[in-house]
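One-letter codes give the sequence; the integers encode the fold. A sample entry reads:
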Amino acid sequence: MRIPNSPAKSSRRRTAAAAALAAALAGAGTVLGAPPAAAAEAVTVAYTCTGPGAPSGVQSLLVTVTAPATVPRGSAADLSVEVTTALNVPVDVPARAATGEMVFQLGGAGTGSVTATGFTNTAAIPGGSPVTLTGGAVSARLDAAGATTFTPGTATVHVFGVTVTCEVSGTAPVAATVDVT
């Protein structure tokens, strides 16, 4: 006799869903307003995730970043983030059940790192569907003139009480470039 929704089975599915969502989050940034925006850039980033139920091996994530094309020196570049994974969630995930953060390394004229927060799934995700997380945002004050790049780094996802951390596997591509004038 099979019990359709045993607590152990439900817990395993939630853990698997958490891992799929975590893999989906790992990467990116886009614009919230102000200066003219460059076209949205999408890059594929490879991640390896750890935590309860994390998928094994390297997972690819599509990170779409929209950033201002230029900002005046000493002002902020506002980025927003959307991330999509090829992984399918094993169970239905209610709207806003997943949250997350992603670190971006600054390069070129910029140095340091910033963390995009606010990622979530705005709509319910039916089981068997890929995951898209939106709403990630970060504002970075840029003080040095020249091109500043933003490269995806560590990502963290929280879903169903499970936290999964994803680290870049290999070298991540630049997701956005802002010219600081």
User: Anything to note?
Assistant: The longest helix spans residues 7-25. The two ends are 69 Å apart (CA to CA). The first strand starts at residue 41 and ends at 50. The chain has a mean pLDDT of 82.
